[in-house]
User: Fold this.
Amino acid sequence: MNIAVVLKQVPDLVEGLEIDASGKAVDPSSVRYILSESDDHALEEALVTKERLGGRIEVYSLDTGEAKEALVTALAKGADHAVVVDAGLESAPDNHTAAGIFASIFREKRFDLILTGVRAIDDLDGSLGGLIAGFLDLPYVGLIRKVQVEAGATSIIVEKEYPGGCAAELAVTPPAVLGIQAAEQPPRYVPITRLRQMMKTATVEELLVPPVSLQPIGLARLFKPEEGTGAVMLAGSLEQLSQQVTGLIAERHLLR
Amino acid sequence: MNKDIVVVAEHFRGHLNEITFELVGKAREVAQSLGGKLIVFLLGHDLRGYIGELGGADVIWAADGQEFREFTPDIYASLIGSALKVSSPRLVLLGSTSAGLDLLSLLSARCAFPCIDSCVRLETKDGSVIATSQVYGGKVFAEVALPEETTLVAVVPGSFDPEAGRIKGNPEVQAWTTAPGTPASRVAFRKLIEPPPGDVDITIAPVLVGVGRGIQNAENLSLAEDLAAALGGAVCASRPVIDQGWLPLTRQVGKSGMRVKPKLYLAFGISGAPEHLEGMKQSETIVAVNTDPNAPIFSVAHYGVVADALDLLPALTEEIHKTGMKKAS
Assistant:
């Protein structure tokens, strides 16, 4: 089983997030970039599959200045090959542009499975995996929590999440693209010493592709929700806060 | 392109999903403003029971057949895509749901229709349509003036009033079937997997203590369990806690988890990503505790506390014990 995993960097929401002067993008200097959480799960699911069946994992990421650490981390976890894709982009593109670039790569270089995280926090124009599948005319299923591949089988069995804790079991004929929500086990951890060592020695292939010019959706503006709307904020020491919360539970008869 | 609006309906186990009524209600308003028709696209098997509940539609497009009995993205996208190409509506509304999100990206790429996800507001202004979406875990809104061509919009459940779309009636029905020569589906439905039984049912608990990433590790869950026990409630969680395996799937609140409406929802260390808010914002009283004063959870909470969940949990449990408050039942 040959698997490609597409990885994307997104702002760490723990940090404050500022909108830049254009009003249409997040100010990159205000944020720290981290691997998109569901992409981490997509990589984990690929690693679990490889451990069961063998095969090869290649990880891909667009070069928007932040990709190398995630790619080397993936190598440290067990990926076989890492590719940073240089399409002449200065910042992270919208998903249609990114999917167009990846589709042109995967049209040439075939994989049985292409895994991505089902969504990233900065997605506005659909999910990357679904768009790649659509451009390549491959089947796609998103919100996957389990991928089962049996040796010699012609289809891949996946569990797609539905509301209420339910899931649909689907059989997908490869080659296919899957949008992973959660791997069947928490993503593995790479000790920082090993990562530092790998950063010095690992090889990441640089793939130069022609820039893609797709018309991005016309974003009018980004804005933050107004502060001070919503909750009545309580203040005080821990003891005072506990008394206030207990008080309002009693006053509003919330336990009756 | 015409001025019509198409709503892609969703149903599960014989009932139309709430999101369908939300979309129908909103689409009626937008269709009236633009001067177009409202079309509801219904795919499945044995659809007769749903038609009468979709009186808000001018026309129902019904694709009724064994192959549509269960949702599979490949064949659903094929049929919807071919219908949309023929009819060129102004707007196509889907739910930002498990099925809707698959369709959104597939249709956008296959048919070259622009698309917008995570929409929470939709309005018309001088004939143009403006969508507002939540991005960055609900910390930022993105406003988009939709292009003047067939555009797909996926709406976050809970954004619009379902009552506006719950209209009985007898709309005109037009049948759609898969065109001859359509390739066989590469995705097949096998079975529905139910959540494992035997755990606490958080959808009926009168009080819920919800925990998120701020709980930090599995050991700290006992602090939430203690508070839930003192109040007569149960512990539930947002996605990251479930993905770590600290609590079972049955305790998950949000898009893939349960939708809860307890009398009291105490949120500890939950930032309030849209996927979580979708499942709990209808709770009667919400008290949120988070170290980040800008956490989106405070926009749906009635009371907010900027504090570390791990500090306030034991302090609050102690205070509840001290007052000798009678537990919820």
